[in-house]
């Protein structure tokens, strides 16, 4: 049994080392870029990229693990022949991916993914961009790597998987359990987040993150991942859709008719409240006693009374807020780091304007590729569940909100560089809604909101006494709404109605903004208030600009809603029918909503 287990572990380590070697070779191949980085950065590439290497090695080792189980009953010579054949196939695939990836990265700026199959549909055109000498070089390089690593395998495993000693009854059980244990490196642990390429991101230099990614893992994830289906949301000629969308967002002058701030360079604290819906905010017509602190501060700040979430999940909400990019019905752009790095970010705009950035979250930042998205947005400094001791991570999602607010409070009391942007995402009011302290409401959702609201109130009341208050803008919004009460239908506009509130000493005074808008309008509106350009935010609008056309678009699973002050329409894309139609001109809203969604998917497809 011992010899079989050693062979199993040895095979796993072989692949981990191979992947590490290929990372170094990748950096050497792109020496014109890699030479600018210190040796310690090269080591960090290997260290932070190991999670994907372990995962890919785990996948590949599953079959040898099962072969070892079978070796308890089948001749080891046959097992060895099958293993060599299997290994040759896996090595062939891996080296082919690495070889193509090495050269394509120079042109794409990202790793090989399933996009290559679109080009292979017209192989003549694909080959036209490659010279004969380059093809010869790539083929030669592939054969050299394949032969070298296959020879290394045959030498290292010359005496493995053969001449096993007599089998004991417990041997196949132990070997099978060893194979099952590969679940841990494959998934990357037992956290809520599954393995994704964002787990390898560690630097604000995107090239180093790309070096840390395992190209085989990246390609396989792309290969098995659902393709973005643009044709599914094609309702009219593409030019017509783009023209209608452009008309919706056109503003004769992208300037403010109303200036809310005392200064164009305030400090900014951006707090994104998990699942906070307008149904719990009294000033927005919600319940009066669930969120008393939010209610109280609504009377002191600039309250946007007609705001809607862009979608129904945190990953979509974050992209809508930071990038002004609408959520999609059946996909999430955050799952495609090659695409998210092409998005605009108001955080990155502020970074270029001299702001100091930091992001706070009590949960796992690798969930749905959040880490890669935030790094792309300029947040080199981030707080996540890893920054809290085990005793503080008492919820399914990590550290509770009061602990994260304490971290934020501590940073604000130290020598904080100004101006700053500190962004925080709460998480305690996420399902399963289990929060510390005494229970105030029988309904778990309402009870979790009450807890998070108390944490928010404690923070705001404390920060209000700080000298930083006078020059700070605090923006409160939700990542998405909530289906409350439980009888509420998932597709209706009220499900997506959220609070948006601007506070702090940097605002001129309390006010209500009644213009209909959504999360995707927050970034361009904020940047316009700061006197900064908003041209890159092609789906959002400056709410306070001249000639703004008030509307809100939101998406749910395979459907969308489109609203104007005059009418509302909700469309089920799968059933291909209208499921809600209200107001004076819902047909126009339906056409505009379809054009907006079609334009979104055209844009999503074009990003790489």
Report on this model:
Helices cover 45% and strands 12% of the residues. It has 608 residues and is of the alpha/beta class. The chain has two domains: 2-224, no CATH class; 270-539, Alkaline Phosphatase, subunit A (3-Layer(aba) Sandwich). The strands form two sheets. Strands 1, 2, 3, 4, 5, 6, 7, 8 and 9 form a nine-stranded mixed sheet that branches. The radius of gyration is 27 Å and the shape is globular.
In short:
45% of the residues lie in helices and 12% in strands.
Second rung of CATH, namely the architecture of the largest domain: 3-Layer(aba) Sandwich
CATH class type of the largest domain? Alpha Beta
Q: Could you say what the CATH topology of the largest domain is called? A: Alkaline Phosphatase, subunit A
Number of domains: 2
Mean pLDDT: 90
């Amino acid at each position: 049994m011992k010899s079989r287990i050693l062979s199993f572990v040895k095979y796993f380590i072989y692949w981990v080392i191979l992947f590490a070697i290929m990372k170094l070779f990748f950096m050497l191949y792109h020496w014109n870029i890699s030479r600018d980085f210190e040796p310690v950065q090269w080591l960090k590439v290997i260290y932070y990229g190991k999670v994907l290497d372990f995962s890919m090695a785990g996948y590949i080792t599953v079959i040898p693990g099962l072969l070892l189980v079978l070796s308890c009953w089948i001749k080891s010579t046959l097992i060895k022949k099958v293993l060599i054949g299997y290994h040759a196939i896996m090595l062939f695939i891996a080296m082919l991916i690495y070889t193509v990836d090495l050269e394509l990265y120079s042109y794409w700026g990202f790793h090989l993914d399933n996009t290559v199959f679109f080009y292979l549909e017209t192989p003549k055109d694909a080959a036209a961009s490659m010279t004969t000498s380059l093809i010869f070089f790539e083929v030669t390089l592939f054969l050299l790597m394949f032969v070298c690593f296959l020879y290394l395998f045959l030498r290292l495993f010359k005496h493995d998987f053969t001449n096993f000693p007599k089998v004991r009854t417990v041997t196949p059980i132990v070997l099978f359990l060893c194979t099952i244990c590969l679940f841990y490196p494959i998934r990357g642990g037992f956290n809520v987040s599954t393995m994704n390429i964002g787990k390898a991101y560690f630097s604000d230099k995107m090239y180093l993150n790309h070096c840390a990614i395992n190209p085989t893992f990246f390609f396989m994830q792309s290969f098995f991942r659902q393709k973005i289906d643009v044709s599914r949301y094609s309702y009219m000629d593409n030019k017509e859709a783009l023209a209608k969308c452009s008309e919706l967002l056109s503003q004769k002058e992208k300037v403010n008719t109303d200036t809310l701030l005392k200064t164009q360079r305030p400090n900014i604290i951006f707090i994104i409240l998990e699942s906070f819906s307008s149904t719990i905010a009294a000033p927005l017509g919600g319940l009066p006693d669930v969120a008393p602190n939010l209610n109280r501060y609504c009377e002191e700040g600039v309250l946007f009374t007609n705001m809607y979430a862009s979608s129904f999940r945190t990953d979509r909400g974050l992209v809508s807020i930071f990038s002004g990019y609408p959520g999609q019905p059946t996909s999430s752009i955050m799952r495609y780091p090659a695409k998210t790095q092409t998005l605009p970010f108001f955080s990155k705009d502020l970074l270029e304007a001299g702001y100091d950035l930091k992001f706070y979250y009590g949960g796992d930042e690798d969930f749905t590729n959040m880490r890669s998205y935030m790094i792309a947005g300029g947040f080199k400094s981030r707080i996540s569940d890893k920054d809290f001791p085990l005793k503080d991570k008492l919820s399914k999602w990590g550290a509770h909100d009061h602990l994260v607010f304490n971290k934020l409070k501590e940073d604000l009391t130290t020598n904080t560089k100004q101006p700053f942007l500190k962004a925080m995402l709460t998480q305690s009011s996420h399902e399963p809604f289990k929060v510390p302290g005494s229970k105030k409401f029988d309904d778990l959702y309402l009870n979790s909101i009450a807890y998070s609201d108390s944490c928010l109130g404690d923070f705001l009341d404390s920060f209000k006494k700080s000298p930083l208050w006078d020059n700070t803008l605090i923006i409160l919004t939700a990542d998405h709404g909530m289906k409350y009460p439980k009888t509420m239908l998932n597709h209706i506009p009220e499900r997506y109605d959220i609070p948006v509130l601007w506070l702090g000493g940097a605002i001129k005074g309390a006010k209500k903004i009644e213009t209909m808008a959504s999360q995707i309008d927050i970034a361009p509106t904020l940047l316009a208030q700061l006197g900064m350009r908003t041209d890159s935010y092609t789906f959002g609008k400056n709410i306070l600009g001249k000639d703004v056309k008030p509307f809100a678009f939101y998406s749910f699973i395979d459907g969308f809603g489109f609203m104007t002050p005059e009418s509302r329409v909700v469309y089920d894309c799968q059933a291909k029918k209208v499921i809600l139609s209200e107001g004076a001109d819902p047909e126009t809203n339906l056409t505009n909503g379809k054009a907006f969604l079609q334009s979104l998917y055209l844009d999503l497809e074009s990003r790489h």
